[in-house]
Design brief:
Strand content: 5-15%
CATH architecture of the largest domain: 3-Layer(aba) Sandwich
Radius of gyration: 28 Å
Number of helices: 20
CATH topology of the largest domain: Rossmann fold
Protein name: Sigma-54 dependent transcriptional regulator
Structural class: alpha/beta
Helix content: 40-55%
CATH class of the largest domain: Alpha Beta
InterPro entries: AAA+_ATPase, AAA_lid_NorR, HTH_Fis, Sig_transdc_resp-reg_receiver, Sigma_54_int, Sigma_54_int_dom_ATP-bd_1, Sigma_54_int_dom_ATP-bd_2, Sigma_54_int_dom_CS
Keywords: ATP-binding, DNA-binding, Membrane, Nucleotide-binding, Phosphoprotein, Transcription, Transcription regulation, Transmembrane, Transmembrane helix
Pfam families: AAA_lid_14 (PF25601), HTH_8 (PF02954), Response_reg (PF00072), Sigma54_activat (PF00158)
Number of domains: 3
Length: 455
């Protein structure tokens, strides 16, 4: 039998506490009461409460002081504030202090049920996201977050390839995570104790690139005042990641081919070559086969670096990963910026999922970091997103900010219904797969299909 979730109701009005206790018990919760913040703080420290409903204006210790004390004490319950005198500023201040949501009195039972339903779904998604990330980290690299089937197959290949010295070519658009996959190849394999050295072949002037890769001896050219080791020597015993290898000048392509074949390098100006033990992983956002056909890339080098190819999908081809990545980047940058626990509003998440992300995962991460700077409280709303992303919110939801469309309940239901329809369209009506995309159980989806009369 499922254990009942515990809720603490904190309010100095006995009638309201009693009403909430009766309502919440009917919904299957285990309810305790407190008449002020000080008593509630003692109970919260001892009891394992999932949620706390707390009034703002109370004797002994008011709601804001209670909220601050809970945050400082590390109490992990999800706290929802209540007030009959609330303003927008109060709501924002409570969010900044760590509240999950804010509800104005008087409220009806449906409003309380909706807020708790959203809070439970948020906690479920956080737990599932955490489990998914841990599962991925078990066989890849911590920052590769995906539940996409194609990415899953790529990471399985990474596991198999990581134990070998085979040269690998990683292909994909800019921002798809090519360096992360290269690092996974290195840190999951036998070379993880050795260095991982990365260089962007397009970021270094052609005149300096040979010296950077192979090093030089003192006096090799005018400015060579001392010996310098190159990146191949620096990566000895480990992995050298050649990003944007398609930018490599033809003259250097010949020398790189020789290094890969002979496994030895010669510093500029040196009389003798020296052996190096380096695994080379290359990456490109170009069509290298097309570059070969156009005479801009050597065919023999192309075949040498392309012993095994990994083609990464664009983010628009793995839409189901967007909510996971949003959660990951909110957690990553939120902790760094002192803003833990921020979550997107349904409208913001809808826009983030619908946007095409030409800059892929890198663009999404930058968008989330920017949004954290601009957002107020514990929610990331549409207003904190770039204009191009905001434009992807559904027309029917853009009016949520208007005075005639302020119903949270109606907005949440409309968004939920639309997401279900889209998931069914993407999966060709397969309800099991649609439930996975929606990150809910198959049983919950069947209930919602009936609720929204979707057959």
């Amino acid at each position: 039998m499922t254990e009942k979730k515990k809720i603490l109701v904190v309010d100095d009005e006995p009638n309201l506490r009693h009403m909430l206790q009766v309502l919440l018990k009917k919904q299957g919760y285990q309810v305790e009461q407190s008449a002020d913040g000080a008593d509630a703080l003692a109970k919260a420290g001892e009891g394992n409460f999932a949620f706390i409903l707390c009034d703002i204006r109370m004797p002994v210790m008011d709601g804001k002081k209670f909220l601050l004390a809970c945050t400082e004490s590390g109490i992990g319950a999800t706290i929802i504030m209540m007030s009959a005198y609330g303003t927008v500023d109060d709501a924002i201040e409570c969010m900044k202090l760590g509240a999950y949501d804010y509800i104005s009195k008087p409220f009806n039972s449906d409003e309380i049920s909706l807020v708790l339903k959203k809070a439970e779904e948020r906690e479920r998604l956080k737990d599932e996201n955490r489990r998914l990330r841990e599962a991925v980290r078990g066989h890849a690299f911590p920052d590769i977050i995906s539940r996409n089937d194609r990415m899953g197959r790529i990471m399985e290949l990474v596991k198999k390839l990581s134990g070998h010295k085979t040269t690998v070519l990683i292909q994909g658009e800019s921002g798809t995570g090519k360096e992360l996959v290269a690092r996974a190849l290195h840190y999951c394999g036998v070379r993880r104790q050795g260095p991982f050295v990365a260089v962007n072949c397009g970021a270094i002037p052609a005149a300096l690139l040979e010296s950077e890769l192979f090093g030089h001896v003192k006096g090799a050219f005018t400015d060579a005042g001392h010996d310098k080791i190159g990146l191949f020597e620096e990566a000895h015993g480990g992995t050298l990641f050649l990003d944007e290898i398609g930018e490599l000048p033809l003259a250097l392509q010949v020398k790189l081919l020789r290094v890969l074949q002979e496994e030895e390098i010669r510093r500029l100006g040196a009389a003798a070559a020296q052996k190096v033990d380096v695994r080379v992983v290359s990456a490109t956002s170009r069509d290298l086969a097309g570059e070969v056909a156009a005479g801009r890339f050597r065919e023999d080098l192309y075949f040498r670096i392309n012993v095994f190819a990994l083609s990464l999908p664009a983010l628009r081809e793995r839409v189901e990963d967007v909510p996971l990545l949003v959660d990951h980047f909110l957690e990553k940058h939120g902790e760094r910026m002192g803003m833990p626990g921020v979550h997107p509003t349904p409208e913001a998440l809808q826009a983030l999922v619908r946007y095409s992300w030409p800059g892929n995962v890198r663009e999404l991460e930058n968008c989330i970091e920017r949004g954290l700077v601009l957002c107020d409280g514990a929610t990331l709303g549409l207003a904190s997103l770039p204009e191009a992303v905001r434009a992807c919110a559904g027309q029917e939801h853009r009016g949520v900010d208007r005075s005639d469309s302020l119903s949270i309940k109606k907005g949440a239901e409309a968004l939920e219904r639309q997401l279900i329809v889209r998931a069914l369209e993407q999966t060709g009506g397969n309800r099991t797969h649609a439930a996975r995309l929606l990150e809910i159980s198959h049983r919950a989806l069947l209930y919602k299909l009936k609720e929204y009369d979707l057959g």
